[in-house]
């Protein structure tokens, strides 16, 4: 299966972010990818995942920004069926 990156674009606390998120090949029961490799404003943001009701990232990033990226992906990421 060929991977397709998801274009990411949103504003948070007055800053505009653009980039992409590449989903992993593994999916959760709801069809969303288990995690995403995220790049924002040409900088690696981290590997983002959703677990036990919250978005987690493997880099030190502001919690509110992590949640904003997660909300965007939850709304815009395609689901595997």
Task: Compose a concise summary of this entry.
The chain is α+β, with helices and mostly antiparallel strands. It contains one helix and five strands, in the order βββββα.
Identify the quaternary structure here.
Answer: single chain
* Structural class determined from secondary elements: alpha+beta
Percentage of residues in strands: 35-45%
Shape: globular
Describe this structure in words.
This protein is an alpha+beta fold and 81 residues long. Helix content is 17%, strand content 43%. The chain contains 1 helix and 5 strands. Strands 1-2-3-4-5 form a 5-stranded antiparallel beta sheet, with helices on one face. β4 (43-51) and β5 form a beta hairpin. It is globular and about 35 Å long.
SSE topology sketch:
Layout: E1 6-12, E2 15-23, E3 35-40, E4 43-51, E5 54-57, H1 63-76
Antiparallel strand pairs: 1-2, 2-3, 3-4, 4-5
Key terms for this structure?
81 residues; alpha+beta; five-stranded antiparallel beta sheet; globular
């Amino acid at each position: 299966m060929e991977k397709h990156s998801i274009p990411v674009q949103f504003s948070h606390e007055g800053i505009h972010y653009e980039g992409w998120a590449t989903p992993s090949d593994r999916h959760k029961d709801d069809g969303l990818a288990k995690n995403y490799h995220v790049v924002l404003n040409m900088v690696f943001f981290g590997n983002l995942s959703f677990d036990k009701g919250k978005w987690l990232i493997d880099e030190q990033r502001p919690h509110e920004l992590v949640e904003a990226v997660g909300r965007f992906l939850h709304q815009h990421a395609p689901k595997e069926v």
